[in-house]
Amino acid sequence: MDEQQHIAIVDDEEDVRETMGEYLADHGYRVTLLENAAALRSLLETDAEIDLAILDISMPGEDGLSLARHLSEHTDIIIIMVTASGETIDRIVGLEMGADDYLAKPVELRELLARIKAVLRRAGGRPGVGLPSGQPGTRIAFGKCQLDLDAHQLFDDDGSEIKLTAMEYDLLKAFAERPNRVLTRDMLMDLAHHGEWEPFDRSIDIRISRLRRKIERDPGKPEVLKTMRGAGYMFVSETAPD
User: Fold this and answer.
1) Contact 40, 7 (CB under 8 A)
2) Which of 12, 151, 165, 34 is nearest to 101 (CA)?
3) Average pLDDT, integer, range 140-151
C-alpha cells in the first residue's frame, strides 16, 4: 500500500491484541495497541489519524459499544467490533451503534484481514477522502440531504456534513443508482458488498433505520426510503424517471 493505514486495536486481553497487531503489522499496517477505551480517547486527543478501530465489546470500564457510539458520532473512523459472544443481540446492538462490521472471537486472522481490506476499500482507503466539504460533485437529493457521490459524503440542507459509515454510504449509493425500484434485502446485501451475510441477518433493516434518522424529515413516517411490505425497500426520487 502506498501509505500505511493506521489501525487501533482496543482489547483488554493482551495476548489477543498482540496477536492481531503482529499479524496486521506484518501485512503493512501501522498498528497501535490499546488496553481500554480510555486509552483510545487519550490517543484521539493527540490528533492522531486513525483509519480503523477494532473494538472488543466486553472491556472493564467503558465497553466497546459505548466507545463505538462515540466514534460513530464524532469521528470518521471505521469500526470493526469483536466479541467472545456469538449472540445475535450483540451483533445487532453493535451495528446500531455504528459499527461497519462484526466478528466473533476467536477471530480467524485471515478473515479479519479480509474484512479490514473490504471496509477500507469501501471507504475509499482513508476516512474523509474526497472533495472538500461544500464543493459540489455529483449530488443526489435524499430527503433533506444531498449525497455527494464523488466525495462519498452526505450533507444536510445547511451544508453541514452528516457522518456515514462505509456500509451506510454503500446503501445510499445503491439506492441512488436505482431510484424508484424495489430492492430486496438480498439485493441490498449484494450491492453493499456484504452478500456473505446470512439472508435473515437484520443488518440491512438496522442500517435503513439509521439512515432514515439522518435523511428523513420525519423518520417515523419515511417518505424517501420506503418499506415495501413483503418485498424490500425503495428510494422514492422525485427527480428520477420511474
Assistant:
1) no
2) 165
3) 90
Q: DSSP label at 114?
A: H
Round to whole Å and give the CA distance between 165 and 169.
6
Answer whether residue 220 shows pLDDT above 50.
Answer: yes
Which pLDDT score is estimated for 223? 93
Report yes or no on 127 lying in a domain. Answer: no
- The CATH number for 106's domain is 3.40.50.2300
Q: How many domains does the chain have?
A: 2
> 16 with 98, same domain?
yes
More confident residue, 170 or 27: 27
212-216, long-range: CB within 8 Å, 24+ apart, which pairs?
A: 214/145, 214/154, 214/162, 214/164, 215/142, 215/143, 215/144, 215/145, 215/154, 216/143, 216/144
- The backbone torsions φ and ψ at residue 138, rounded to the nearest 5 degrees and listed phi first, read -85, 105
pLDDT tens per residue across span 80-94 = 998 876 666 666 777
Query: Which residues constitute the domain of residue 67?
Result: 6-122
Nearest Cα residue to 181 out of 231, 140, 220, 218: 231
